[in-house]
């Protein structure tokens, strides 16, 4: 985690979004508010956050695959 619980609380992030990529979501939300949620604004921030979420998904998938393989091997 690159941001603390206090920083996430100050940014008023919902609990569901306080994950590994919260450090990118905070500036994205600030940009969205500043630009009145225009879809063509804040593209760099949005793509950075989406890429982080995808990489986190892949990381968690690899971990789960390893755990399942270890469980299968143990049985």
UniProtKB/TrEMBL annotation:
It is a peripheral membrane protein. InterPro entries: NDUB7 (IPR008698). GO terms for cellular component: mitochondrial inner membrane; mitochondrial intermembrane space. Pfam families: NDUF_B7. Its main location: mitochondrion. It is found in: Mitochondrion inner membrane; Mitochondrion intermembrane space. The keyword Nucleotide-binding does not apply. Keywords: Disulfide bond, Electron transport, Membrane, Mitochondrion, Mitochondrion inner membrane, Respiratory chain, Transport. The keyword Disulfide bond applies. Belongs to the complex I NDUFB7 subunit family. Accessory subunit of the mitochondrial membrane respiratory chain NADH dehydrogenase (Complex I), that is believed not to be involved in catalysis. Complex I functions in the transfer of electrons from NADH to the respiratory chain. The immediate electron acceptor for the enzyme is believed to be ubiquinone. This is NADH dehydrogenase [ubiquinone] 1 beta subcomplex subunit 7.
